[in-house]
Fold:
Amino acid sequence: MRLAKYLAHAGVASRRAAERLIAQGRVTLDGATVTDPATHVERGAAVSVDGELLAGPEPRVVFALNKPVGVVSTARDTHGRETVTGLVEAGGLRLYPVGRLDADSAGLILLTNDGELANRLTHPRYEVPKTYRARVADPPVAEAALRSLREGVELDDGPTAPAAVRLLAPDELEITIHEGRNRQVRRMCEAVGHPVLSLTRIAFGALRLGALEPGEHRRLGAEEIAGLGRGL
Structure:
């Protein structure tokens, strides 16, 4: 196994962050400092980060969580707010969120200790779809606004890619995007004259929120995890 992948599977960091740790000379393999993330790690090898010996790769886990409004999508928060990782009992495994939601939004978020999977699910190159249900102000939403969302909206950081949009009610939209810009759905809706009043993510790739209540979570099975990464 490549060293960067080994660190990601040990729950140290995402693969990209692990590559930075290695390049900084903070990782040793059998007592020798290694700076090449592609270095092969043999079974039973001793790998340390900042002098701390790793126990080895952790079991890969992925949890689906229905994030409530007010909870932040980070592993820890300097302001003492409740975090998504605090809502999941992972038996001591270090989890981090995949696909962040702002504090004012709710819905499906993934938590995992698999840095490689997290990177593949969030990297723009793979265009993993994410679907949201938005209740908006100033209804009804006109056809011109729907067309703008479907064709792409000009934002301050550039035009968005076309979105799949369904009108569920005069004040409710279902929007699927393939990008991951900060507060993107909120900014898109505001740009077409319908600020978001409430926002819930209902799907991440092929995975649906389902019957999970706010604050509830469940561990994904092997087939569901394989489905998340299928086609990437």
